[in-house]
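Lay summary. Proteins are chains of building blocks that fold into shapes, and those shapes determine what they do. In this project we predict the shape from the chain. Here is one chain we studied, written as its sequence of building blocks.
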Amino acid sequence: MAGQGKKKIGSLEESRRRNFRILLAVGAVVVLAVAGVVVVKLGTSNDTAGSATVTTSPQPALVTPSPQVVPVPTDAPIPSASGIAAAIGPAVANPDLGKFTGVVADALTGNVLWSADPSTPMTPASTTKVLTASAALLKLPLDRRLSTTVVPGSSPGQIVLVGGGDPTLTATPKGQSGYYANAAHIADLVDQIKAAGTPVTSVVVDSSLFKGDNMATGWFPADIAAGYITPIESVMIEGGRYDGTQDESPRSETPALDAGKVLAQALGVDPANVSLGAAPAGAKPIATVQSAPLSDRLLQMMEHSDNVLAETIGREVAIASGIEASFTGAVDATGKTLQAAGFDYTGVSLHDSSGLSVDDLIPAQVLDRVMTAAAGDGDPKLRPLLDYLPVAGGTGSLSDRYASGNRTGAGWVRAKTGTLSTASALSGFVVDQNGRVLTFALMSNDRPPEVSRPALDAIAGTLRNCGCQ
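And here is the predicted shape, written in a compact code that computers can read:
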């Protein structure tokens, strides 16, 4: 970024005097605004001695705020099923959708207004994150943070970096942000280690919190270099990215070991003296840092469709459910949490928490029921899900959609996207022309995203323009 020049504005003492005069003037204005304006006319040399005229202006009328963002009316007319079908009929007939299923429902009542093969399991891609986020909202507190600790090792000069499930650690200097907002800094661990007076000659990395395979069924190793994923381990720097300033930066194949090397270098230890291992039982931390709260991490996961965050948050749900923190455990915990909340999970078959697996299957009606519960009166714990959804033409994974050409729905459609090589999906909500909130889940398989995504966008945009009575 280009720098900006600076002008010399005087000494520090001059600045202080100027600021003091400004504060006095502002204070006088505040007093006048509160007490009412008083105009005092004092006698001049032509006035008779001791005469003065005092005029008080009337009290100004109170300002009534007029909010421009107001709640949608609860009594807005509900579109008719035939009206919805007629409106979106041409869009859903688009052959670019390939194998297509979908649901449109009224958020407040939960009534389905339109559907096409809603119970057919489809490859969901990243709309899987709707289920992961919902399970986290139901199971975990929004202020939950993850701790990354350093403990003494089993030999003199050895320390152990113990992963607590946080993939967002940053190696940027303190005061600067990495890829993830409000992430914990390696530099803070270093300062605490030095303050403790602990001599360090080697670093062990303990990533034993997560169990089982670190790559899921249906994942492709090439996606590591492509920047979509990294092996899922319980401690990472910037989600395993080599370049923490880029979303789809190439990722590491050994993210936990790399985190240990970053810590070692910051301590002046040879990275060759970093290895994987386990912390001694009962070892007390000499340094600890904490992640951003779950609410921040869920926003990042949903808005930018972050696969690594989805997998680690899925494991948080598993641990809170008393299930092992693995791919299988996370998927199992998500399903059990949603079913316990009353959701029909029929047809769901998952191998991960992010939707990157090409073997995942979810029916459209499952996604829409969760979305309707969040947007309507189904479960208040799910309401934050709406805030995490990208805005069409504005934020996250929808920022470059609805942004040019046909902008119908821009700023109104909010939805989680899903994209794989032959699968696209969109699940979210929109307010129609009458102010009625409609939820939807739209899923396309067997077509490349460059043709299926615009076709899905057109359906959601049509719902925005629908009065459909």
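What the prediction tells us: The longest strand covers residues 423-431.
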